[in-house]
Amino acid sequence: MTTDHTAHTGSAPAIIEACDLCKSYPATDGGAPAPVLRGVSLRVSPGEFVAVAGRSGSGKSTLLNVLASLTLPDSGTVLFDGQDITRVSEARRNRLRHSDFAVIFQAHHLMPYLTALENVLLPFMNGLAPVPAAMAEKGRSVLDRVGLSGKAASLPGALSGGEQQRVAIARALVRDARVLFADEPTGNLDTATGEAIMELLAELGRDGLTTVMVTHNPDYARRAHRTLIMRDGLMVDGLA
Q1: What's the burial of 237, exposed, middle or buried (CB within 10 Å: 0-12/13-18/19+)?
Q2: Under a CB-based contact definition with an 8 Å cutoff, are residues 76 and 136 in contact?
Q3: What is the pLDDT of residue 12?
Q4: Which range has highest mean pLDDT (30-44, 69-83, 176-190)?
Q5: In the record, what terms sit under GO molecular function (predicted)?
Q6: What whole-number distance in Å separates Cα of residue 27 and Cα of residue 60?
Q7: In terms of DSSP bridges, do strands 234-239 and 226-231 run parallel, antiparallel, or are they unpaired?
Q8: pLDDT attached to residue 173
Q9: End-to-end alpha-carbon separation of the chain, Å?
């Protein structure tokens, strides 16, 4: 048991280091802004699989969105490879989101009129221009890696919920992102399918993909190398 939320594995420099993150959102009744993050700090080493656990409303999804540069904090810093990405231009953050970072959510966000392979290759599709053959082959290889061999030509409507989530994971992997952010990736799945997705994420972690996962499920959190616990916008506990 540890309360050092910047702890990390090994001696490698952190790939992500957040310090004293604060974030509030406007109150729906026009009152004072509601604090969601209240001084959160953490450190993630290259190749580490970190789970951030906590109840709904604890601030864990907001934390992930800040780490993934989907939203900016009100104060505090997020270093990626030593650079404070809260201070760079929106164009630079956009490049990060399309190259170094990949995010998967509860919802699969698949295009219903595109095949599984086309959904995986969506980041590389440019209008009507064909995707280069080498990239298409890489897409098929990544689909194979996530257990969807033979499903490349299937539309999302012909796939199960678990298969659709695997397509979303494949889409994240095909870009060779350095950090995978997963926000409740099993939230809409039944127990057996959720276990299969968690095993896939654990396997990716064993292969060295840096992963930060948000979950409310303590059993899933234990599959990570390290678990951090959030409550009311604070890191309150950690398991080494």
Answers
A1: middle
A2: no
A3: 64
A4: 69-83
A5: ATP binding
A6: 19
A7: antiparallel
A8: 85
A9: 6
Q: What Rg value do the Cα atoms of the chain yield, rounded?
A: 18
CA angle at residue 45 from 48 to 35, to 5 degrees? Answer: 95
207 or 75, greater pLDDT: 75
Sequential DSSP letters for 180-230: EEEESTTTTS-HHHHHHHHHHHHHHHHTT-EEEEEES-HHHHTTSSEEEEE
Buried-state track 194-206, b at ≥16 Cβ within 10 A, e below 16: bbbbbebbbebbe
pLDDT recorded at residue 79: 96
Two structure tokens written together for 36: 């969601």
Cβ-contact 235, 42 below 8 angstroms: yes
Map out the domains of the chain as residue ranges: 1-100+180-240, 107-176
Backbone φ, ψ for residue 222 (5° rounding): -70, -15
Predicted confidence band of residue 216 (pLDDT cuts 50, 70, 90):
confident
pLDDT of residue 118: 92
Half-sphere exposure (Cβ direction) of 232: Cα atoms closer than 13 Å? 1
Rounded CA gap, 45 and 124, in Å? Answer: 29
Choice between 209 and 127, residue whose per-residue pLDDT is larger: 209
Q: Where are the alpha helices (DSSP H) in the chain?
A: 60-67, 90-99, 116-120, 133-145, 161-173, 191-206, 218-221
What is the C-alpha separation between 214 and 137, in angstroms, rounded?
A: 31
